[in-house]
Amino acid sequence: MELSMVSMDLTLLHCPLCLRPLKPPVYECKGGHLACADCCVERPGNQRQCQKCERGGGFDVRNTAVDAVLSSARVECPHEGCGLYVTYHKLADHLSVCPLAPCKCLVPVCGYEGPPPALSHHITTVHAMPMHRIQYGNALQLQVPLSEPRLLPFAEEDGRAFFLVGGVLDIGAPIAVSVVCIKAGASPLPHYVAKLWANGPPGEPKGRTDAVKVEMEVTCSKDPGDVAVQELTFFTIPPKPLAGAKLVSLHIQIDKLTS
Ligand SMILES: [Zn+2]
Ligand SMILES: [Zn+2]
Ligand SMILES: [Zn+2]
Ligand SMILES: [Zn+2]
After folding, report:
1. Of 73, 99, 125, 168, which has the maximum CB count within 10 A?
2. Mean pLDDT to the nearest integer, 12-16
3. Which listed ligand is nearest to 80 at the C-alpha?
4. Ligand 2 center to residue 42 CA distance, Å?
């Protein structure tokens, strides 16, 4: 069977009650107006009454022909580089998990927005920040300067960009860290967990009291800068190794959980 393209006014496939794309199963009134099944019953006081008909008829008849049209109407994801065709009434669901959904630049005043690959490029070129390479399950060592209240190194594998913000306000004060994955947030899987060690690489002999570890779930967000500030985790490094040091050595490891 040949695939043929049809051009049509997509608003014809919208429900007059929720104003969103009609979602099967679809019901119709005696005047031929359509509504999603969910919408017909979700209007308290106005249940199953058509507002377009003068006498307000009910949505009594299932329209399987329209259901079939809705199930076959596909549109291309509008995100640059995605190219996926999705059923029209499922487009909103896809947009919230699309790996190429535009994300905001981490630099607060910048205002740039782009799909994660373009954003990574933007960060390394426009802001001249190095993109550290990381492999899932392997620790990467980062030097966090004590003098700076915020630091923004990045890590990336399989095109996924992560963003760490860390800062120490004072000697002996807790370090504030936050790890955010730069991608649309609603995606169910994979999940990421970040582990951070201070003053000692992972695998150091057990019993080293100055190897401090924190573990945190990584939030995915299209606005990573905002999330990083909201979801800070604090951990305290014993003061001794900090004395006189200008840098804190942080080891970060990101684990990818697919189930
Ligand atoms: Zn509806
Ligand atoms: Zn009607
Ligand atoms: Zn997409
Ligand atoms: Zn920027």
Report:
1. 168
2. 89
3. 3
4. 17
